[in-house]
User: Fold this.
Amino acid sequence: MELKITTLEGKQAGSVSLSDAIFGLEPRTDLVQRCVNWQLAKRQRGTHKTKQRGEIWRTGKKMYAQKGTGGARHGPASVSQFRGGGRVFGPVVRSHAIGLPKKVRALALKHALSAKAKDGGIIVIDKMTLKDGKTKGLAKQFDKLGVINALIIDGAEVELNFRNAARNIPNIDVLPVQGINVYDIMRRKTLVLTKAALDALEARFK
Assistant:
């Protein structure tokens, strides 16, 4: 697959051939969904907690006599039937993370990239560098390129001025190539890659 390379100013800077092994697969939504679920479950905090019967600060004395009251037989008031009692099977502090093999995660990333390529949602830019970290100027350049809702992937390090200018623009995410992931690719309309990012991806999946 051939794509044109542009600069931030919108000028042509040649073309690049995308690897069919990474960008030319027939997208499988089941793999992408599994990876997205794995990512979202992994980052869930799991700090929800309710008090169980043994954690309620109430007396353990029997409420009233076993017989002669005409009511049901009850023990302490910390049970779940009474107001202020413990909760049965309530949430506890735990990890929501699920397992997903590394090969499946790598394959899901390839299918996410292939899905973007198939939809025409990939833009290749020569390099992401700015003379000054001004958000207003970068936003105008993005408007010319048609980048409104995008994930931008640079090389091993994102240039400081570009990162500072892009972080105030809504619906724009900037990551180094090490941080590329399926969820961020799918949640944004456009995927913007630099030449350095393309080289790193091809080296990663070689």
Observations:
- The chain has seven helices and six strands.
- The chain has two domains: 2-45+97-204, 50-90.
